[in-house]
Design goal:
CATH architecture of the largest domain: Orthogonal Bundle
Radius of gyration: 19 Å
Structural class: mainly alpha
Order of helices and strands: HHHHHHHHH
CATH class of the largest domain: Mainly Alpha
CATH topology of the largest domain: Rna Polymerase Sigma Factor, Chain: A
Strand content: under 5%
CATH superfamily of the largest domain: RNA polymerase sigma factor, region 2, helix turn helix motif
Helix content: 55-70%
């Protein structure tokens, strides 16, 4: 049996992908056990535990460099937090889709475009006449930020948020489940907010 003190975590945080993969393989069964039974029966046909695990592993590869390597117990707790957040994101959006709450999908107004509207939804800028210049700046910066997203995240934003395509269409293109698409979307929005520095760059006043 491999020792829990074999330096894998330090190496993973340092950018060693093989070390991280070994950690995920080591602790994956425990993580899966913690999540077992948490997907409501009504969604089990379009969201699986494998979807949640896959997204959580992707998140781990993207964010492990920011982790404070305080031991593998803390690493497992971090993974579980990622997984539960992913599952909650998917369930919330699936419930919203079922209820027909289409406000979650962005619909540009006649005097605006979908990029500017997405900037508002992400909290980068508010829609008031005094914000017109800020909206244009936010739109340009958001377009650049979207280009920096990982490919799957970028596709979800472009197709679902900007083009207004259905979650079924996006899922088919990515060969993922609708629930997995919603996990990707939530993750993409968080990345965009991080890149853009939401709340500090464009919201310089409260008028």
């Amino acid at each position: 049996m491999v020792s829990a003190h074999d330096g894998l975590l330090d190496r993973a945080v340092g950018g060693d992908g093989e070390a991280l993969a070994a950690l995920l393989e080591r602790h994956g069964p425990r993580l899966r056990g913690q999540l077992k039974g948490q997907i409501p029966q009504r969604w089990q046909g379009i969201l699986s535990l494998d979807d949640v695990m896959q997204q959580t592993y992707q998140d781990a590869f993207l964010d492990v460099a920011c982790l404070d390597p305080r031991g593998e117990a803390a690493f497992v707790a971090w993974l579980l937090t990622l997984a539960r957040r992913n599952l909650l994101d998917a369930l919330r959006m699936l419930d919203a889709e079922k209820r027909g709450r289409q406000w979650r999908r962005l619909r540009p107004r006649p005097d605006d475009d979908s990029l500017a509207f997405l900037a508002e939804r992400l909290g980068c800028v508010k829609s008031t006449p005094s914000r017109r210049a800020a909206r244009h700046e936010a739109r340009a910066c958001l377009e650049q930020a979207i280009a920096r997203l990982p490919p799957a995240y970028r596709i979800v934003v472009q197709m679902y948020d900007l083009a207004g395509r259905s979650v079924v269409d996006v899922a088919a293109l990515l060969n993922r489940s609708p629930g997995a698409v919603f996990m990707l979307r939530a993750r993409a929005h968080r990345y965009l907010q991080k890149i853009l520095g939401t709340g500090s760059r464009y919201l310089s006043d409260t008028a």
